[in-house]
Amino acid sequence: MLFNRRSMFRAGAATAPALSTPQIMTRATFAAAPPKSEITNTGFYRFMLGEFEITVILDGIRTFNGPHPTFGADQDADEVVSVMKANFLPSDRMIGQFNPVLVNAGTDVILFDTGNGPEGREFGTGQLASRIAASGYASSDVTIVTISHLHADHITGSWTVIIRRSARHDMSSAKLNGTSGLQLTEGSWAYSPQQEGKVPPAVSRVIVIRYLTVRR
C-alpha cells in the first residue's frame, strides 16, 4: 500500500477523535470537581496527651539574621557557618516560629506563654488572640497563664499580668481571666537586685509564684 499526502491526511482525520477523547474526559472530570476550599491554615494543631487536650498555637513566623550569634554564641562565627552549610541551611538567615501552648486539663485551661504581642504583627507574629479564637476557645476561657521564661517572644503578649485571682488580664487586645505564674527559678533571677532596672516593663508586672501551684 502506497502512502501519499491525501491518504496521510485521511488517516489523521480518522484518529483525531480518539486522540482528543482523553482531553474531553479530563475537562469533564475537572468540571465535576467541587470548588476549592476557602479555608486557610487556622494556625493551631491539637492532640490528646492522656486526658489533657493540647493545642499548639502558631503566634507567627519571622525571619531573622543569623543564626550566629543568637545560636552558637560560644562558637566562632565561621564554625557556625560551616555547620549550617554542611546541613544545607542558609548561613545568614533563619526562620523562627513561635508556639504558645494551650492545655485543657479539665479543671483549668492553661496557657503556656503569651507570644509576641501586638507589636509583633508588623513582622508577622502576635497572632495568639485570633488563633485562640480560631481553635474554638475564647481568651476568657483561660484560667491560668504560665510563663516558661522571660524572653520577649514569650511575654510580650502579657500587657497586664494578673496580680490576684480572677483579675482581668489583657492579652494581645483580648480580655483574659485567670492566674498568672512564672517558674520560680526564672522569677528569682529576674527580680534579683542585680537585675534591677534591666527588666522590661511587661516582665515587671509578672507575679512570681510557684509553677502551676496557684489555682483559680
Element layout with pairings:
Layout: H1 5-32, E1 44-49, E2 52-57, E3 60-65, H2 77-86, E4 93-98, E5 101-104, E6 109-112, H3 128-134, E7 144-147, H4 152-155, E8 158-160, E9 167-171, E10 174-182, H5 184-190, H6 201-204
Parallel strand pairs: 6-7, 7-10
Antiparallel strand pairs: 1-2, 2-5, 3-4, 5-6, 8-9, 9-10
Organism: Rhizobium changzhiense
GO molecular function, one term: hydrolase activity
Domain Metallo-beta-lactamase: 99-168
User: Biggest sheet: strands, sense, closure?
Assistant: 8 strands, mixed
Question: What is the total number of structural domains?
Answer: 2
- CATH class categorisation of the largest domain: Alpha Beta
Query: How do the helices and strands follow one another from N- to C-terminus?
Result: HEEEHEEEHEHEEEHH
The gyration radius over C-alpha positions equals: 28 Å
CATH architecture of the largest domain: 4-Layer Sandwich
Number of helices: 6
Q: What is the assigned CATH homologous superfamily of the largest domain?
A: Ribonuclease Z/Hydroxyacylglutathione hydrolase-like
CATH topology of the largest domain: Metallo-beta-lactamase, Chain A
Terminal CA distance reads 96 Å
β-sheet strand percentage: 15-25%
Total DSSP E strands: 10
Strands of the biggest beta sheet: in what spatial order? 1-2-5-6-7-10-9-8
Shape: globular
Main structural class: alpha+beta
Q: Can you tell me the residue ranges where pLDDT is under 50 for at least 5 consecutive residues? A: 24-30, 159-176, 207-216
